[in-house]
Amino acid sequence: MNSISHVGLDVHKRTIAVALLRPDTGELIQWQIAHEPTALRRLIRKLKTHMPLSCAYEAGPTGYALQRQLEAAGIPCLVAAPSLIPVRSGDRIKTDHRDARKLAELHHAGLLTAVHPPTEDEEAVRDLCRCREDAQLDLVRARHRLGKFLLRRSLIFHDGHQWSQQHHYWLHGLKFSRAADRVVFEDYLLAVEQQEARVAALDERLAEAAGQEPYKTPVAHLRCFRGIDTVTALCLTAELHDVRRFQSAPALMAYLGLVPSEHSSGEHRRRGAITKTGNRHLRRLLIETAWHYRHKPAVGVRLAKRRREQPPAVIARADRAQQRLCRQYRLMTGKGKHHNTIVTAIARMLVGYLWETLREAQPGRA
């Protein structure tokens, strides 16, 4: 390892700061390039003159394109988890060159924690899932705007659930005497209907992706669990993209930020709220799913339909999860725990069952 040069890259939208640490002399060579294709090709040619070497940069908004380009050129590249990079408490100066040098030194010392980059196909499906999440958030905002406008006019729907078909009929039957009110109402209603159409179209695309390999089997197995249908199952699979990289269920729980934080010293032990590190998209999905387990165990019509022709072992595991998690919800409720604390604990327990299910559904993964 001491014969390998280590390169730290501080990657930004327009520039890349480079720091090359030579193993023989300990010399540090630094320069900066533009973040554009021609400069990257020159950088690759220059780095190849210092082989063997290994590069590292922080995961961030620039994604994994640089890592893929370097790997394709035969240059190993590690994408480091930013939250796990060691930080000196007394360091108050931050520049691009300092960051690049720090990455090179930490990479040389083996102190960087690598993230697991998805393939381009996996990243495409993952982004499709996140696009649907953004569309759903836009729909909620559009509905809120319309609902608050109607509330200010004392127009309140009392004949069923909000945003049901009957509610839509009621909305289209509203009349306003003032032209300005009509313009505002029609604009807000149009925004709601556009966002609903957008979500519906994305749901169709997600359903198509869920019916193809390598997602078909994992999605079908996850749909056997209560509270998990096609969209949630595909999002869970796409965000994890290779669950076998987690050697145990607790490792996956920690990655999702669902484990308690801890600050212990000597004989004093103190545990706090969950760490909320890692993938927030998955954490939100799991919390939403956990709410379904507050009801007594049951297999409804839709869940029974999703379970058709699925392996009995998977169905049995889903039933065990439902029995245990519903029982745990009632037990914690009886102890007076806050409902948010209970649901978070249920989500953490659910991860164990999902981890086991996905490992069996992805036997060919490395």
Structural class label: alpha/beta
So how many helices? 13
Basic shape = globular
Strand order of the biggest β-sheet: 3-2-1-4-5
Succession of helices and strands:
EEEHEHEHHHHHHHEEHHHH
Provide the residue-averaged pLDDT: 91
Cα Rg? 26 Å
How many distinct beta strands? 7
Q: What is the share of helical residues?
A: 40-55%
Number of domain units = 3
CA-CA gap between termini: 25 Å
Which properties best describe this structure?
alpha/beta, single chain, two-stranded antiparallel sheet, 366 residues, 5-stranded mixed beta sheet, 13 helices, Nucleotidyltransferase, domain 5, globular, 3 domains
Characterization of the model:
- With 366 residues, this protein is an alpha/beta fold.
- The chain folds into three domains: 5-109, Nucleotidyltransferase, domain 5 (2-Layer Sandwich), CATH 3.30.420.140; 120-210; 216-361, no CATH class.
- It is 53% helix and 10% strand.
- The protein is built from 13 helices and seven strands.
- The radius of gyration is 26 Å and the shape is globular.
- The mean pLDDT is 91.
List the helices and strands and how they pair.
Elements: E1 5-11, E2 15-21, E3 28-34, H1 37-48, E4 53-58, H2 65-72, E5 77-80, H3 96-109, H4 120-152, H5 165-172, H6 179-210, H7 216-222, H8 230-240, H9 249-255, E6 260-262, E7 271-274, H10 280-290, H11 301-306, H12 312-334, H13 339-361
Parallel strand pairs: 1-4, 4-5
Antiparallel strand pairs: 1-2, 2-3, 6-7
